[in-house]
Amino acid sequence: MATTHALIGMAIALPAAYALPELAPAVLLAGLVGGLFPDLDLYAGHRRTLHYPVYFPVVAAIALAVAALAPEPVTVGVATFLLAAAVHSVMDAFGGGLEMRPWLETADRAVYDHYRRRWIAPKRGVRYDGAPEDLLLTCVVAVPLLLVLEGALLELVVALVVVSAGYALVRKRLVGIAVWMVSRLPATIRAQLPSRYHEG
């Protein structure tokens, strides 16, 4: 789930937020945004356009080294963003495939490896977004955030957990709704949607 990635991004930011409390809100938000960033390609080459399971970790490692040598707001924020985006990109290889009903395990594509120029097959450690194990991961990652954060950031974490639980409850039903809605769109709009929306 996008919410899982967002919370993992925030959890990644916790050590930097603890070490540099004056930067905590900005660093935590950088982690959240970095965790969400790769999924901005959802309707344009999903898991290929903004997912870099090889390049993001390399760039993040360089950014972390720079931030360690010069811990300024920009360097720490950029390093946190890139690390969260890297973890997201790598994690998607351990999830389900690119299909409307990933619990059927019919797809052989999880995330694109630009370095090797091929798709990485889904490992299905988390079978699909919104699966019970995805919600469990969300809750586990949220625990340290719930224990440490306060104010608006704490409320944000609680909201993300609640949204995650709601999504997990209706995940499979959403496919039928999406298929029904897509079938009623004008043909010109339907043609612009990713092929998985035409699975029916």
Structure, described:
Helix content is 60%, strand content 3%. The protein contains seven helices and two strands, in the order ααααββααα. α1 packs antiparallel against α4 and α3 (55-69) packs antiparallel against α4 (73-91). It is globular, with a radius of gyration of 18 Å. The model has no long low-confidence stretch (mean pLDDT 93).
Provide keyphrases for this structure.
200 residues, mainly alpha, 2 strands, 7 helices, globular
Task: Describe what is shown at a glance.
Helix content is 60%, strand content 3%. It has helices at 2-19, 24-36, 55-69, 73-91, 132-148, 151-183, 187-190, and strands at 111-113, 118-120.
User: How are the strands of the largest sheet arranged?
Assistant: 1-2
Q: What is the terminal-to-terminal distance?
A: 22 Å
Number of strands: 2
Multimer state? single chain
Q: Summarize the amount of helix as a percent range.
A: 55-70%
Secondary-structure element pattern, one letter each: HHHHEEHHH
Radius of gyration: 18 Å
Helical stretch tally: 7
Uncertain residue ranges: none
What characterizes the major β-sheet? 2 strands, antiparallel
The mean pLDDT is 93
Looking at the structure, what is the overall shape? globular
